[in-house]
Design a protein that fits this description.
Helices cover 48% and strands 11% of the residues. It is of the alpha/beta class. The structure holds iron/sulfur cluster (2 copies).
Length: 342
Amino acid sequence: MRYPRPKDIDAMAQIPLEAAKLGINYFDTAPYYCEDKSETILKVALAEIRRQGYEHYISTKSSADTYDKMKMHIEKSLKTIGVDHIHFMHCWCLLSLDMFEKRKRNGVIKALQEAKEQGIISHIVFSSHMSGEDIALVADTGLFEGVTLGYNAINFPFRIQGIKAAARNSMGVVTMNPLGGGEIVLHEKRFDFIKTRAGQSILEAALHFNLAHTQITSVLVGFTSVEDVRSAVKAIDTFNPLTDNEIDAIKKKIEGSFNQLCTTCNYCKECPEGIPVVKFIEAFNYQILYNDPAKVLDRLKWHWDIQNLNLLEKCTQCRQCEEKCTQKLPIMERFEKLKKLK
Ligand code: SF4
Ligand code: SF4
């Protein structure tokens, strides 16, 4: 989902191709990612991946909320990716238990089960940004064979129950966002505590944190270049399992506030007033990380091109963004704090 120039399809296809060459075999895509070009880029890469005989498993997603839409989306993804079979089909982005119940009631799971019986998908899985406790409730229904969820050294307390429940149900667990939206690597000093071994880079430490969990089957990294792929694979090559004591030591060092960072997932983007919530809340990370208003204002000005905070006055407090926030951040409260920064 992080291809930098999605319209440059052939060039972008080199990224998954390099991944396959280096032994990565799980390819996670979805409609709408990267200006709706992600599945097409994978299609182009797959032609060569197949020709070279590299092992590959394809994962894609649908947020269909009815039986008919799910059937239609599966057909569309098969066509766009250019395959006759999808290994992992996600019931995509369950944001609440109500949403799960609604999709179930409307026949979404039935459509997935029928597709599996037909042999056009192999595994019915779901992805979610809910809390670990809610993910556990969905996992315990026994309807799914795997789950994809955001998990890293920042937000692990929010999600660990989901991972445990998935393991209890013998499900595959794919973790996304292992680098905390890039914050862990960008703020190396702050997150230094996740390093457990001498000479370990922060990228290695972040990926090793996820890999160290025996319940986790696969760790996703959103690559932006062939070089990214090489660095991540190099980081994996140096992995030695962490002991339970090492994992516990990392977890103990994490202060409560680290669970409060915006991961820039952008699920809050549909603000009816056109407020770019992600830009403000991502900038607020700097207040949490550095307690320095100047850094927040600099971030807004130079990174996000927001020259003043007047836009925040347009907020009607409808809280739609808070409901959608994958990290359950108190966005309204942060807006008020932002308004007071000088
Ligand atoms: S609460 Fe404010 S920022 Fe959030 S969606 Fe509503 S108007 Fe937009
Ligand atoms: S505020 Fe929440 S939903 Fe919006 S980008 Fe940050 S973590 Fe994601």
